[in-house]
Amino acid sequence: MLDHLFEENPHVREELEPDEIAFIKDLIIGESENSGKPQFLYQIINNKSYNIDVDKWDYLARDSHFLGIGKSFDHERMIKMSRVIGNEICYRDKTVDNFFDMFYSRYRLHKTAYQHKTVLLFNKLLGDAFRSADRHLGIFENVNHMRRFTYFTDSILEEILKNEDNENLREARNTLNDIIKRSYRYIGTVEDGNDQGEEPGNIVCEANFDYGAGNENPLVNIPFYERGNTHESFNYNPDQLEEMLFLPGTFQLNVRYRFERI
């Protein structure tokens, strides 16, 4: 996608050297093996060490705002309290509760929006419709052709629905109509060990909620520093965090939702 943007805007590419373009790509990926540049730079956009970066702050703040959920963490305070120690970005120890609020905001967004049971159902039905239509429309080929991909919008849904005489799109069209008509209703969760599979006409969707580090406490991986000591970092251990914060009993929750056809 970045290469396509440069192709569409050659005047921008002309201002950059090849090694600068490679550096931009490495920053997006979040790693570089032989750049010779300070490693903390690769923690700014896509931090693979402990999952705190400006990309996460951006979508958490934006989505919380537009969904009307609100956020309880202050990313500007986090930035002001950050220091580079030992070639990695570290944070003042007193911001630990702010980071917990951030990871909780992530969990809440997944539970109320990204992996809401209705969203999961619609995602599955959309996927089924696209896979069926792909045999005739070549939808997934667009992923490898950036110019065509930029034109891949919601109009594909209209194209499937309006071609009522195209028998090749009948299955995809019926699936999309199931979404429009809300042909499925939620009937409850599936308890682990008691799942009999998807009964005819029923759909099971699985949600995986966590705080960004699976079943682990994400706070243990964050490097902190103490006031007056900006030359040495440390990590809180689980027991220390348990004493300092009101933490959940588990950091991961798997739920399976069952829907039946009306």
TrEMBL record:
Alphabetized PANTHER family for the sequence: DEOXYNUCLEOSIDE TRIPHOSPHATE TRIPHOSPHOHYDROLASE (PTHR11373), DEOXYNUCLEOSIDE TRIPHOSPHATE TRIPHOSPHOHYDROLASE SAMHD1 (PTHR11373:SF4)
Record GO biological process: dGTP catabolic process
Gene behind the chain: LOC115217105
GO cellular component, one term: nucleus
Gene3D superfamilies noted in UniProt: Hypothetical protein af1432 (1.10.3210.10)
GO molecular function: dGTPase activity
Protein name per UniProt: Deoxynucleoside triphosphate triphosphohydrolase SAMHD1-like
